[in-house]
Amino acid sequence: MTGPDVSDPIVVMDLPKAWGLVVLRGVLAVLFGLLTLIWPGLTALALAIVFGVYALVDGIGLLMDAFRNPDKSNRGMRIFGGILGIAAGIIAIVWPGITVAALAILVGAWALVTGIAEIVAAIRLRKQIEGELLLGLAGLLSAIFGLLVLIWPALGVAAIAAFIGVFALIYGVVLIVLGIRLRKLART
């Protein structure tokens, strides 16, 4: 099954919405990364709440994209990723006293699933958009990060914060660049 025809005016009109959500997700990831690097000694409670808010907003963004984007080929993965992000965010906000290891497992599982979903989306969109390699790269970074956190969940709070912060900064910058490319594509 092929994706939408980018020359179709309806698809082009929907791209500005898509690029804005991608850039918003990137900006939120960068802000989240900066916060964790500026205050690496945050308690597990504060880190859980900050992660919860980020995951909740990111999950809502993925769900919005799933229903606004005319390309239905990977809608199920975006819906699944969005629901997982919302669930992870709610769990982290409602039970902020969870241990660092539990938070690490939650973050690792979320990043792994999100990364796989983005790799699948990049493969499916490779003929429709330029910059799908950036989406694939963001997905690969997310999946690698998720695996590393799942393998070593007992890292200290400062190490997890630094690790999460660096990942979030790189991931956010990649998403911002992808969003800018989508915006340029929407204008053509």
From TrEMBL:
Highest taxon of source: Bacteria
Keyword NAD: no
Pfam families: DUF308
Name of the protein described by the UniProt record: Uncharacterized membrane protein HdeD, DUF308 family
InterPro entries linked: Acid_resist_chaperone_HdeD, DUF308_memb
Cellular component terms (Gene Ontology): plasma membrane
The keyword Transmembrane appears for this protein: yes
Keywords linked to the UniProt accession: Membrane, Transmembrane, Transmembrane helix
Ranges annotated as spanning the membrane: 18-39, 45-64, 76-95, 101-121, 133-152, 158-180
